[in-house]
């Protein structure tokens, strides 16, 4: 009796040009194209094991150890059904292949970062799910083809099927066949792009992306301007900046687009607020840090961006991360020592401080815990297929 099982991991991505708004909510077709940086799975990832077996009585899924219902017609069910459909096509062409498409599957998924950190896990989660099923089913599908399926799990997930710098082309077809992810550049093209995630404490339950963006599409006049007149040019400009490794342009567009995304949230009726005082203070610090550089004749040295929550992601060339960590820690004292995966600080550790010429009055110091943690990572690669020893399901087909 063979064991039909595969395990894959997939990365988180953080958009520079934000996806916000659907033209088709069932197929998850966006109102604008978007572009993101894939982050390194060495630091943040979802890992998923899928197994097909004739003895399984239904499709089942466990997320971080807890069983999740697979609702009929829901996003998970859609992704699993699409993958089985692709497997069936392959079986119809190659009659000697085992009929895995007729078996139920058990899927077990795990994130290596706490959900409490407030980092979106749906993108890496759906990407890992699709990659593990594609491996299990031995599908000859390209990352772009798989992105079509992951998109139907969660829009932003389609961009986690590739490493480096990834665009989600909105497409024009009503059936979604051209709404897919393409790689603008692999990580090797511009490995110097690092990211510092500032995990901002947040106790209130925010508006989900799914419902928030729908309300924006229904009520915001500003989003129409964004869709028609702003995003298309920005997509071209930031892709060119990536090709040229022009951090100054990349940073300017990234910050402008984060700002406009939060502006269309404010323009929604009733308004949606994702950033808080801590988020806005991080903006002020990055702005001042950049001002010092530009006034001395230099370039932008960092770019902030915020998704549907208060956490900040700061993109910067590696050489600037040390100064940025010192600056953030200066205003947001940390309870725990900074985990320094790139060994920037040696044995002295982080002292807290700002670059010379920095106007310290742009912000006040916050209490310990306002920024709960800092995660230093960088641009990363696409999904990885893992060995059997990393499988998350035990011999009985249940989570280990
Ligand atoms: C602000 O992909 O979570 O992070 O398609 O409804 O699942 P659904 O939404 P989701 O939205 C992400 C929105 C964002 C911007 C981005 O990642 O581009």
Order of strands, main sheet, comes to 8-7-9-6-1-16
Mean pLDDT: 96
Q: What distance lies between the first and last C-alpha atoms, to the nearest angstrom?
A: 20 Å
The chain-level structural class is alpha+beta
Series of secondary-structure elements, N-terminal to C-terminal: EEEEEEEEHEHHEEEHHHHEEHEE
Spans of at least 5 consecutive residues with low confidence: none
The geometry reads as: globular
**How many extended strands?**
16
Residue fraction in strands? 15-25%
Helical content, roughly? 25-40%
The distinct ligands, each listed once, are: ligand DP6
Query: Total helix count?
Result: 8
Radius of gyration: 22 Å
The biggest beta sheet reads: 6 strands, mixed
Keywords: Kinase, Transferase
Organism: Hygrophoropsis aurantiaca
Protein name: GHMP kinase
Task: Describe this structure as you would to a colleague.
This protein has 400 residues and is of the alpha+beta class. It is built from 8 helices and 16 strands. The protein has helices spanning 75-93, 122-136, 143-150, 209-219, 222-244, 247-266, 277-295, 318-331; strands spanning 4-11, 13-17, 22-24, 29-30, 34-38, 45-53, 60-63, 66-68, 104-111, 165-168, 181-185, 193-200, 303-305, 312-317, 371-378, 384-386. The strands form 4 sheets. The chain has a 6-stranded mixed sheet with strand order 8-7-9-6-1-16. A hairpin with a 2-residue loop joins strand 7 and strand 8 (66-68). Helix 2 crosses helix 3 and helix 5 (222-244) packs antiparallel against helix 6. The model has no long low-confidence stretch (mean pLDDT 96). The structure holds ligand DP6. Residues 15, 18-20, 28, 34, 120, 122, 154-156, 209-210, 307-308 line the site of ligand DP6. Keywords: Kinase, Transferase. This is GHMP kinase. It comes from Hygrophoropsis aurantiaca.
